[in-house]
Amino acid sequence: MQIQEIMQQLEQYGNETTKRIYKNHGAKEPLFGVKIADLQKIVKKVKKNYELSLQLYDTGNSDAMYLAGLIADEKQITKTELQKWVAKANWYLLSEYTVAGVAAESRYGLELAREWMKSDKENIASAGWATYSGLLAIKPNEDLDLSEIEGLLDYIRTNIHNAQNRVRYAMNNFVISVGTYIPSLTNKSIEVAKSIGKVSVDMGGTACKVPFAPEYIEKVKARGSIGKKRKKVRS
User: Fold this and answer.
1) Whole-angstrom Cα distance, residue 111 to residue 94?
2) Is residue 99 over pLDDT 90?
3) Is the pTM of this model over 0.85?
């Protein structure tokens, strides 16, 4: 499929109800309002396609940008391209899922996570924390810097409530990810999560809620899933 054909398909899949929901969550125009399930129909046709993913992301259309992340080839995408992607990610679905997912699966995941987390721009910083969370989900624990991760937990304990809105959400998810994917740090994650307490995030008047980290980790622990890794971040 060519870029023009895909854009036409996206427009056909779009609907006003979904568009309104996305905009309530922070999506910016232009967008058609395409459900993820419909995007997956296109993914089945095009598979991974490096060049097409770049073209789709460059359209600036939110639906096309999300689709770009689903078909991006993490082995071919460059660090420079990922830097451009995060700079253009104008709402959390793109920054914390599309960009973070591709970055975590790429060879540049750790260095970009470290860099982006320090940004004073909300969407870039949240993308950094989300990228690191993605790495925790897929990387063997022996390939992770556990002392650094433990230090990040301490940093979150002190700084989360003063962080920017979506950064608070991503930090909270990081605590959950450490607790669920790194058994040796599960107890510390729960302790930090309890110390933090409930995290307040403006969800844009939607019904979405911030996961309560201690409770979330304990549920994963109860079903015997602590330490179980995922094959990939994107879905």
Assistant:
1) 19
2) yes
3) yes
